[in-house]
Amino acid sequence: MRILIADDHAVVRHGLKVLLAAEFKGAVFGEASGGYEALNLVWQHNWDVVVLDLSMPGRSGLEVLKEIKKVRPKLPVVILSMHPEDQFAIRLLKAGAAAYLTKETAPEQLVSAIRKVVAGGRYVSTALAEKMVYCLGIDVQAPPHERLSDREFLVLRLIGMGKTVAVIARELSLSVKTVSTYRMRTLQKMGLASTAALIRYAIQNNLVEAEPGEPRARLAKPTREWLRIHNRGQHSRN
Question: What is the pTM for the complete model shown?
Answer without folding.
Answer: 0.61
